[in-house]
Amino acid sequence: MSAAPKASALRGGHVTLAAAADAFLATARTANPNTHRAYASAIDRVAALLGRDRPLAEITDTEIGAVLTELWGRCAPATWNRNRAAVTSWLAWCQARKHWAAPSVPADAERRKETVDETRAVAKTTVHRLLSRRDIPLREKTLWRMLYETAARAAEILALNVEDLDLEHRRAPVRSKGGATEWVYWDSGTAHLLPRLLRLSDGSTRTHGPLFLSERRPGPARRPGAGDICPHTGRARLGYDRARVLLDKHAGLDLHQLRHSAATHLGEAEVPLQLIMGKTRHKNPRTAMRYVKPGSEAIAKVTEVLAPRRRTH
What we know:
Strands 1-2 form a two-stranded antiparallel sheet. Helix 1 packs antiparallel against helix 2, helix 6 packs antiparallel against helix 8 (188-198) and helix 6 (138-150) packs across helix 10. The chain is mainly alpha-helical and 313 residues long. The N and C termini lie far apart (78 Å). The protein has helices spanning 17-25, 33-50, 61-72, 77-96, 124-131, 138-150, 154-158, 188-198, 240-251, 255-268, 273-280, 285-289, 296-302, and strands at residues 171-175, 181-185. Residues 1-10 have low confidence and may be disordered. The chain is built from 13 helices and two strands, in the order αααααααββαααααα. A hairpin with a 5-residue loop joins strand 1 (171-175) and strand 2.
């Protein structure tokens, strides 16, 4: 990485990147578990690449920009913007609230334009074909079906614990964007898969810990908090980035497309907007309307009305 002028010293020159990250992640702005997990993922990766034990005051703006580019430079604009925003909030807090000498995200690592994709809703037949494929592992099949049937945000479902599940009533409480606790509901497809997902190799069933688990146990260098470790297997909670990569690998889709598609399919079935908002838990009708535009299948079908009438004999 090229050298650049160091951030001017204010105070706290002894504060390391690890200590600065821990202090920020303990604040009220990351109290929501989903927010905390997203911020921690981005900030910890930046700190690890720069050197967790390095003093914050020694890090340059140029280094921050280089690390952001190395980690997420080739990702989609939404992924770049999300992780850039987390790092920006962290460094701005260090400067404004703690008055520590800290770098900033450089101007050339600017926010990227996110284009509106009118094809984000996947056809219902495509979703059902994906969820019935035999080459899809049980964990992914359960996660994707649950995302589609609940129309929930991926971070909300990935944050679920086994003890949160109300299997009898096919529902679970999630912490929404605004911090409220709300119910999400699934149907028979998810209900059929969950008992298989919870079954251990010895025939017993997981009763506590993260619902969706990573493939292997975490190493000591990146061990998550106790709440993100399964007490039965020692494996960590499945992360958003890993879940995103797997859906893209198997189907070329984004996690949010399952939620978007569910809302669109409800709209195509002429479900009232008020019920769709209840399902997706949107508070603003204008926001919900972005998700309930007719999909390509519905538009193709309605086009038949414009065709010449067929002769009956």
